[in-house]
Amino acid sequence: CHANDQYIEQFEDTLNTSVPKTIAGFIAEPIQGVNGAVQYPRSFLKGAYQLVRERGGVCISDEVQTGFGRTGSHFWGFQTHDVVPDIVTLAKGIGNGFPMAAVVTTKEIASSLAQNLHFNTFGGSPLACVVGAAVLDAIEEDGLQKNSEDVGTYMLLELAKLRDKFEIVGDVRGKGLMIGVEMVTDKDSRQPLPAEEINQIWEDCKDMGVLIGRGGLYSQTFRIKPPMCITKKDVDFAVEVFHSALQRHMERAA
């Protein structure tokens, strides 16, 4: 990826000019979720980890959205970047609706917590641990990581057809069942579609039976992260609904 050198240069400049010589840590999602399913240039995260560690910082991977096989090709998002973080944060998917989160780290970092008083009111809940173990079993037994890869790729390709058909669909991107559809006024300017227009499309999808999220700097990206057990038939329905919502928007604009 030709953009990687520019991003690394900017990141290094930030470290040299905007933070102390030594830093505590660097936290990043393997794919930016709320920002609209934005992926880094190839090798960026690997270079960023190296720069952080040179300055004494630990590298933290936020796997709340990318973990547990959602990206399809790997169980953890950081694996797609050929890096090993010092700390991994987990939540949401680990409990499949049950309120649960976890932190995984090295023995050295975990032991450092014993140097000061540290406690968590709900930490180590036996019920939460049973739920988490059951979710891990279900992911493996039901082949949900493979399903994320197969159905997610199918959905990306189907949504890409809408990108080619509608001028306001500026980009379709993602990996597995973590997908972003960026809405623009037109493909030449790539200016974000106005919020009121996106809201109409969003509401139309809801009224037709499909719930999707929103994200991006201007809330211009539809964030699609369905349950990992969905089928291609479910995708066909969702894409048909989205297509109808886009068609209604074009009719209103006309």
The helix content is 40-55%
User: What is the H/E order?
Assistant: HEEEHEEEHHHEEHEEH
Q: Strand count, sense and closure of the main sheet? A: 4 strands, mixed
So what's the CATH class of the largest domain? Alpha Beta
Structural class comes to alpha+beta
Radius of gyration: 20 Å
Q: Based on CA inertia axes, which overall geometry fits?
A: globular
Count of separate structural domains:
2
Mean pLDDT: 95
Strand content: 15-25%
What does this protein look like?
By secondary structure, this protein is α+β, with helices and mostly antiparallel strands. 41% of the residues lie in helices and 17% in strands. A hairpin with a 5-residue loop joins strand 2 (31-32) and strand 3 (38-39). It is an enzyme of class 2 (transferase). Its EC number is 2.6.1.18, 2.6.1.40, 2.6.1.44. GO terms for molecular function: (R)-3-amino-2-methylpropionate-pyruvate transaminase activity; alanine-glyoxylate transaminase activity; beta-alanine:pyruvate transaminase activity; pyridoxal phosphate binding.
Observed structural traits:
Aspartate Aminotransferase, domain 1; 2 domains; 4-stranded antiparallel sheet; 41% helix; globular; (R)-3-amino-2-methylpropionate-pyruvate transaminase activity; aminotransferase; EC 2.6.1.40; Aminotrans_3
